[in-house]
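STRUCTURE:
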């Protein structure tokens, strides 16, 4: 089975997988003033893009769907956050690679 290009941080420190439903439930709870439906649509689009092989606009690594939906551009964890260790962060389970 071939895997998309991964960066060191994704190989060494994997994300914590979370279902789309559970993540959106947590998002709504933690962001009560945000438009949850607009965020859901952005997240579904980002998950679909990642499944289709979308890569970070800055470095070419696979996108981080949750981060991409949050910031509004195709980015990997490191380019979005400036951090390498994603072991305490989530990614949608269907695209947690």
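SEQUENCE:
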């Amino acid at each position: 089975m071939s895997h998309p290009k991964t960066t060191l941080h994704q190989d060494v420190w994997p994300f914590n997988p979370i279902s789309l439903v559970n993540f959106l439930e947590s998002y709504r709870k933690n962001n009560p003033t945000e438009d949850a439906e607009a965020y859901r649509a952005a997240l579904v689009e980002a998950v679909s893009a990642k499944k289709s092989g979308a890569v970070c606009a800055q470095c070419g690594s696979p996108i981080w769907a949750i981060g991409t939906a949050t910031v509004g551009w195709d980015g990997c964890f490191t380019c979005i956050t400036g951090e390498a260790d994603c072991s305490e962060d989530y990614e949608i389970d269907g695209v947690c690679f």
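REMARK: Residues 1 and 8 are 19 Å apart (CA to CA).
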